[in-house]
Structures are given as C-alpha cells and as structure tokens.
Amino acid sequence: MRPRRAAVRTASALVAALALTAGLGGTAVAAHEAEAGPAATGAGPVTHEQNDRVPEGSVWTQHYFPSSDRSGTRLHADVLLPEGLKRKEKVPVILSIGPYFAHAGQTGPEGWTHTGPSARFQDFIEGSDLFDRGYAFVMVDLRGFGGSTGCLDWGGPGEQADVKAAIDWAAKQPWSTGAVGMYGKSYDAVTGLIGNNLDQRALKAVVAQEPLWDMYQYIYSNGVPRPNVTGTAGAYNSIASMPPMADDDPRYRAAARYEESHPECLTENSAGYRISDQSDEHWTSRDLARMARGSDTPLFVTQGFIENNTKPEEMEEYLDNHRGPERGWLGQWDHVRGGDRVGDGRLAMGREGWYEETLSFYDQYLKGIRPTVRYPAYAVEDSTGAWRAQRTWPVGERSVTVPLGGGSYVDDGGASARAALTASGSPAPKAPPQPTGEWDMENAPAAEQRTPPGLAAEAAKRQRAGEVASSFFVWSKPLRKDTRVTGTPQVSLTARGEGNVMLKLYDVAPDGTAVMFDEQVSLVKSGRMSVDLKATDWTLAAGHVLAVEIGSIQTGSWRDTPSGETVEVRGAKLRLALDDPADDVATPGDRSPYLDTYLRQYTVNLPAGPGTFSVVPGGRP
Q1: By its UniProt entry, which Gene3D superfamilies does this protein fall under (predicted)?
Q2: Are 523 and 224 in contact (CB under 8 A)?
Q3: In 3-state terms, what secondary structure has residue 545?
C-alpha cells in the first residue's frame, strides 16, 4: 500500500463545510502554473510530480463529451490512469458521477492555490491501492456542476442521461477494457443506483454508500415537507454557481460560469422541490426504488438504519426489485463511509476491511477474478451492536399484522402536551427550531432534536386520564424472548379529520425507559391509509414491550402545519417482519460508535401501559 501523504486532505475533512445536493470529445487545451509551485493542468498527461493535487501513482487528463439526451449538454471528466500504463494497455474503470468534483472544492472553495482533480475519494484511492491494482478512476461532473454545462436536474431525467453517457464514454476509451464499475457515497451513490437502473451492458458493478432510494423521500414525507425543502435547492444552486480556479482551462471556466448566462437553471431547480405531490411526474421520474424493477447489476450497498440524513426509506423496495447479486453492510451508524473513523480512531461503521472487500468485489465483476475471501452477502449490525452474516436482507422468520385499535388526538404539534408539562411544574420544553441555511445529501445540519424530557410520558398520562391529547399510545404485552423487528414496518389505519399524523415505535424496558427506534409522518388522508416507516433492524429483549405512538408531529425535523383539529383513528394495524436472534450467524464487527449517541438522544421515560396485543402471536417467533 502506498504511504498516505500528510499533505493530502482526506475526503471526509474536505466536506466539513456545508454541502448533499452537460459536448465534444478531447482533452483540455490550457496549462498554467500557480504561484505556489508547479501545477500542470492537463495539456497532456499530468503526474503528481508536475501537480501535487494529482494522486501519486496516476496521471491526470481532462475530457469533454456530450450527454446522451441530445440537449447540447457537455460533460466534463477528470481521468486518472495508472502511471506507466503502456500505449495499448487497457484497464477497467471505476467511475464516480456527481456534483462534488469541481476543481475549486466539493461544496465550496477549499483554498487550493492551483487547479487539479478533486480529492473527494482520495481515501478510496489510497485505501485500495487503486492504481497499483490496475484500475482507472474517472470523476464526471453532472450537468450544471464543475466543468459541465446544462441545467442541474436533481436525480431527474437529465442526470439519468448524464449517467448513461458517462458509462458509455468510459467503456469506449482506448485505455478501457470496456468494464465499468461505479463508486460513491451519498449523491454519487444515488448516481450509482441510477446506473444500475439503466441496465447498461458495460456497467459491471456498483458500490453505493448511504444513498437515497427515492428522491421524493428526502424532501417530503408523504406530503409533509422536510426542513430541507428549500435548503437542498439552495445548496445545490450554490455548488453549481461555484467559480472556477484561475488556472482552469478556458472550456472549464466557461462551463463553470454557465449559470451566469442561464439564471433560469437555478430558478427551475428550486421550483421542482416545491412539488409536494408524490404522484407528480417530477417525482415519479425520480422514484429510483420503483425504477429498479428487474435490474441485475451486482450491487454493494451500505446503509445506516439510524441515519440522520439519507434515511433508509424505500430501501427494502429497491432491494426487492433488484435481481442481481448483492452485497451489503447495514448497521447502526450515521452518514459515514465504510472506511471512515471517528475521533478516537474507531471505525465509524465498526467493521474492518472496507477497501479490501470493495476491491475484491470489483475484481470479481470487472476482472473475473475469483475472491480469495468468502465474504457474507450481507453483514448486518443490529441494535445490540452485534454483527451477523446472512444471505440477503431482510431475513424474517415470520410476518405478523397486529391490531392496534383506535383513539383520537389533537393535531396541535404537541402544544397541549407542552402546556400540560408546564402546568405540572416541569420545565417548559421548547418547540424544535426549524433549521435554516443550505442542506445537501453529503452534509446536513443537526435538525434532529432531542426529545423533550417528559413529553411522551405526559401524553400517556393524559391518555390514562381519558383526555384527548396530542397523541395516544398502544402497548404490547411483554415479549417472552428476544425478538428482532427487521425490514420495513407499516401502519395502516382509517382516519377522520384533517391534519398530520406521526407514527413512532418504542422499545420499552421494564424500568420504564424507552428508545424511539422508528418513526414516520404523513398528511392525514380520509379513509383507509397506509404508511411505511423507515427500514430497521432492532432487537426487542425478552421482557420488553413494544409501544406504538399515533398523533400529531411533536418531534423530529419536519415543517408541518398543525391543523388544530381532532383526528379520530379507527382500525389501526401494525405489520412487522420478525426474526429470531438465536439463529444468527456471527461475523466480525464492533459496535458502531454512533449507536450510543443515538441511544442517548432518543431514550425517554415512558412506563408501559396495559398490553393489548402480542408482538409474536402464539408466543413463538
């Protein structure tokens, strides 16, 4: 492995500032040396010795080519080939496509003194010894970003055309074997899922860390706007408007300033986020989970179940629709990469070997090399911090639908519960502030608010007193043995009234402490309605109780508008996939550090009420 250079900033450090959210061939024609030292910029192949932003062991060139939708959009690519590659020698290509590869910086200017290829995935390049292992690495700017022209089109048909063009272009280069793999995290993981959906012969494998599985779910939850409904548009408009480096070539500089002469691009981008109807064509054309039906590209994904940014919504649908080989690391972490470490040196995902396993995956599907290590198809960390291996995800021994009955609540955003707390002498909990500023898929502000102490318990107390409060609870009987809730829980109910509904699942211990482990919100729809919660993998210990809260949106991060009306709920049911942890096959992995942070933030006091249903009917998982 090449030694890491202290002067090279890691990708994680480079994106510490705010930032989630084109056509002719040929290399760039301008070169310029910055005042800080040698900085060849791409008139011909540029090495690390000529420009210290070029990764060691590689040579850098720039290229331009058209998108596939005949819109006139010209895409820009930074190509890194193994140094010393012979004239007619060919290598497979690892391709990353996204908005974060601008020469000036990923989400804003990063203080570089001269131009050069993005260091976004320097961790992957170094950790995998990518060039020594015989791969090219290609970074393509989506339309509207970096050196690409055109109007940005967040996950839409335009970007899908860009992905198609980039795969085809990478496969047809004289130094390419024609085998292409995709790599990314967050936004450039989304483009990997798009690549899989396109079903192109040249695409042999996709590695997607912490993606979105459906673009709508990042902006709205079943009609309820999330706090980033305006911030995400602003973030990507800002990234698209980032000025180029002074020594970028003329074609790159002109493309980087495309929005200055096409201000409608930014206006149109912002307008799309204001469409709240999930059935609108704007969103159906971005429903990646549905569009994955029948796809078969080998797929390696990661997903944090307790992610606070790109959450596991419609993940199960996407994986169900995918028919090809799958690999996955799933667990209890936040928005991190497979090789990331926290401040004390522990791996953020808790599992060793990310780069080795990723390269083995690419070797198998891009080079036809049989793996020397037998990796599990899925390595999964549950809520206890224990890792297991399984052939797919989710694996459940049974699916159950349990009756929750009904009740009523006032859609007041928790105002009545807060008032009752104040009247009882408890400190008045403040309503969660709405986050401001820009918000993209790579970085999100801390919008998830700690649950106010006593709020849930006060709602349950008022329910026991026969009052109609901001929410009501339904409790299970204590479990007889450890039972895992996996997959995507779903609540169905019949509602009468207008407003919002929030659904929460709690793991309640015998001492009355409870962890909220899953939630979702929706606009109330008259008649029968069903709401999918987030995908989860949570083990309820023997003696614990499952509590379900149904009511107004009181916590979390949504821009809801309480109706003030009383909403009546009848015939509520909860569908769960259950598994028995006793059957687990252990695989190496440590407790991910974020799990304890989550437990501190989402543990409340909520003594169990009378049990009205059994999680496991008949008592057997």
Answers
A1: alpha/beta hydrolase, Galactose-binding domain-like
A2: yes
A3: strand
315: number of Cβ within 10 Å: 27
Are the C-beta atoms of residues 251 and 114 closer than 8 Å to each other?
no
Provide the residue type at 296 as one letter: D
Q: What residues contact 13, with CB distance under 8 A and at least 6 apart?
A: none
Q: Identify the three-state secondary structure at position 308.
A: coil
| DSSP string for residues in 378-412 | EEEE-TTS-EEEESSS---SEEEEEEEEEEEEE-S
Q: Judge whether 514 and 606 are in contact, CB under 8 Å.
A: yes
Contact (Cβ atoms closer than 8 angstroms) between residue 143 and residue 22: yes
Q: Distance between CA atoms of 114 and 143, rounded to whole angstroms?
A: 23
Query: For residue 22, is pLDDT > 70?
Result: no
- The C-alpha angle with vertex 236 and arms to 231 and 241, in degrees rounded to 5, equals 125
The strands making up 46-47's β-sheet, listed across from edge to edge, are: 46-47, 58-66, 74-82, 136-141, 91-98, 176-185, 203-209, 299-304, 326-331, 378-381, 387-390, 585-586
> What local confidence, expressed as pLDDT, does residue 422 receive?
76
Q: Residue 201: which of 173, 183, 178 has the closest Cα?
A: 178
Computed over every residue of the chain, the mean pLDDT equals 90
Q: Of 466, 471, 463, whose CA–CA distance to 410 is shortest?
A: 471
Tens digit of pLDDT for each residue in 254-267? 999 999 999 999 99
As given in the structure block, the two tokens for residue 90 are 């060919």
Using the structure block, give the residue that is written with the tokens 């709602």. 459
